[in-house]
Write a sequence for this structure.
């Protein structure tokens, strides 16, 4: 509560927004039109949408001057999804615009979460976003393959899955 978080483009972050819709006193910065729609009608959520051109395929906005739009903005947490996760290639994306957004947000947030649905493991997309051992946490719907779990554990990357969250409740 009361933190400013960023929810990036993609359907995975949209589902995070839906899960947050019942929370009170949250503040969300996003460029994801689905996220803005999911949270925008809630009186207990403050939602700010980044301006700019709308990318209709991904349903997100891209500011003309990203650095100017985000100058002086600091976020407690940021949530991004990716198109592929590979042990050797790291996190990969299909959209160059998301790469610039990620790098800018990553530099201005306290804690980064990579939201990865289970279909993205052992896949590579067009371009590299970052290595798997970057400073972050992972959220996924199912347990990742064993080689990913071992990799993350050996580097101190916190992994949240449906089963670990259910155990904590």
């Amino acid at each position: 509560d009361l933190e400013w978080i960023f929810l990036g483009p993609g359907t995975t972050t949209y589902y995070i927004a839906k899960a947050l819709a019942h929370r009170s006193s949250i503040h969300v910065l996003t460029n994801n039109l689905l996220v803005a729609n999911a949270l925008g009608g809630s009186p207990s959520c403050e939602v700010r949408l980044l301006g700019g051109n709308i990318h209709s395929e991904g349903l997100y906005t891209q500011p003309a001057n990203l650095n100017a739009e985000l100058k002086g903005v600091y976020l407690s947490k940021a949530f991004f999804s990716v198109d592929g996760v590979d042990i050797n290639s790291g996190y990969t994306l299909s959209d160059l615009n998301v790469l610039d957004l990620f790098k800018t947000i990553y530099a201005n947030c306290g804690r980064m979460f990579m939201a990865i649905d289970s279909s993205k493991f052992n896949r590579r997309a067009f371009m590299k976003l970052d290595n798997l051992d970057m400073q972050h946490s992972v959220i996924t719907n199912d347990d990742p393959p064993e080689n990913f779990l071992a990799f993350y554990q050996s580097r101190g990357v916190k992994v949240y899955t449906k089963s670990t969250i259910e155990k904590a409740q």
